[in-house]
Amino acid sequence: MKENKNYVVATIRKWNLREFKKIAETFSGNWHLITEVEELTIEHLKDLNPRYIFFPHWSHKVPTNIFQVYECVCFHETDLPYGRGGSPLQNLIFRGHKETQITALKMSEGFDAGPVYLKKPLNLNGVAEEIYIRAAKIITEMIGEIVLKEPNPTPQTGEPTIFKRRNPDQSVIPENFNELEEVYDFVRMLDAEDYPLAKIKYGNFEVKFSNPVLRAERIEAIVEITKTKD
Question: Which positions ≥6 away from 103 have C-beta within 8 Å?
Fold first, then answer.
């Protein structure tokens, strides 16, 4: 039987899109990119006939009939089963973590509950977008390893810890913070393209913060002030 060397990468974030070019040029096989939900259909995938479908930073629900037919690999920025659920990066930083593991796992019906192919360490220094860029490079290495070695995933072990997906209303800086480091971590964990920036409400205005720098006795940041809608 002829070896299947067709692969699909489904992603929506610019840092992962930038890495796709490297993937297609570095690893052997036929690589296809999906960036729209409308493209991710069983009919389209039949034409591509992928050995694996990789999902680095895909924010949409994948239809059950796809991961039941094709081997789908997703990536989660926690040491699963710790941190199953939404907004893993923000939840980790909010809890004071300085490092984590990126887990490559086989997609299953249970949310972030599938068996694990491999894990790689990820440092959580810097603003969110810097971390996502760093993670994208590590995920590229993981994709290459999975394609080359085709490892059998193993079931997760241990008691799961569940993270809840954050919503835009939770971007308001909490008033109970006492340390500059708490404010700095809060601002940096939300500082990425298309994410709701950390903010405070001041009368009829919203004050948003990005690009924070932690100094000895202060935080410097870019400030954006907008009038709230009536």
Answer: 75, 76, 77, 78, 79, 80, 116, 119
